[in-house]
Amino acid sequence: MIDIHSHILPGVDDGAQTVEDSLEMAKAAVEDGIHTIIATPHHQNGKYTNVKENILNKVADLNKNLEISEIPLTVLPGQETRIHGDMIEGLQANEILPLTNLGNYVFVEFPSDAVPRYAKQLLFDIQLEGYQPIIVHPERNRQIIQHPSLLFDMVSKGAYTQITAASLTGRFGKNIKKFTHQLIEANLTHLIASDAHNTTSRGFCMTDAYDVLKENYGPSMVYLFAENAEYVVKGDALAADSPQPIKKKKFLGIF
């Protein structure tokens, strides 16, 4: 299994704080069936700044420690960049890191409670630069939950999205779980990942999430999401069915 979103790098954000923490997370990932993981530390979210070169060095160091510890996990470089007006300049200046540093997929994170008005234009501009934006955990964004047409518009114009394993399994609550299922049913999401920060409150649960996928949608949906994770690593085009609009729902008690 491939996990394309994690905070396993030590001492760079609110994920693993020490190398020992990272190794414990790596062991937990392997136990969950993960053999390849993309480290995606926060960048430009108002608290953390992790530029491309630093991430590449940190990933190389972590892989050496994994080899010494004989933990069968491969860590690839990535970055979770909070949407901001200078993202194009960041890509051009080689500060923003595409996933794996080989393909053209770029994580884009929205604030938890809003979608900036310039988001659609910026996502389009990212594509004009030759990159494919992947919106991370849209199911946990307050404005998207209240106005899912926003996500429909962005996906219709070429953006991809990644849901969180814990959202699908219900660890973020029943309302977010319900909305996550609606995104799957409307072809508004293409990838699933752990967004793991530690081994306790924010763990992996990828196997559980794939079990939920299989139970509710059958083996073909499991295959779709698993293959798309492989496509991200290889830099290939993702499989995606035509997105469908979701009727506006009123969710109470989410936040």
Low-confidence stretches: 251-255
SS class: alpha/beta
CATH homologous superfamily identity? Metal-dependent hydrolases
Tell me the number of structural domains: 1
The best one-word shape is globular
Q: Could you give the order of the helices and strands?
A: EHEEHEEHEHEHHEHHEHH
Q: What this model shows, in words?
A:
The chain is α/β, with parallel strands linked by helices and 255 residues long. The chain has a single domain, classed as Alpha-Beta Barrel (TIM Barrel), CATH 3.20.20. The protein is built from ten helices and nine strands. The chain is globular. Mean pLDDT is 96; it is low at 251-255. It catalyses: O-phospho-L-tyrosyl-[protein] + H2O = L-tyrosyl-[protein] + phosphate. Keywords: Hydrolase, Protein phosphatase. One of its GO terms (molecular function) is manganese ion binding.
Summarize the structure.
The protein has 255 residues and is of the alpha/beta class. It is 41% helix and 14% strand.
SSE layout and pairing:
Layout: E1 2-6, H1 19-31, E2 36-39, E3 42-43, H2 52-68, E4 74-77, E5 80-82, H3 87-92, E6 105-109, H4 119-128, E7 132-136, H5 142-146, H6 149-156, E8 160-164, H7 165-169, H8 174-185, E9 191-193, H9 206-217, H10 219-234
Parallel strand pairs: 1-2, 2-4, 3-5, 5-6, 6-7, 7-8, 8-9
Helix pairs in contact: 9-10
Protein name: Tyrosine-protein phosphatase
Pfam family, one: CpsB_CapC
Catalytic activity: O-phospho-L-tyrosyl-[protein] + H2O = L-tyrosyl-[protein] + phosphate
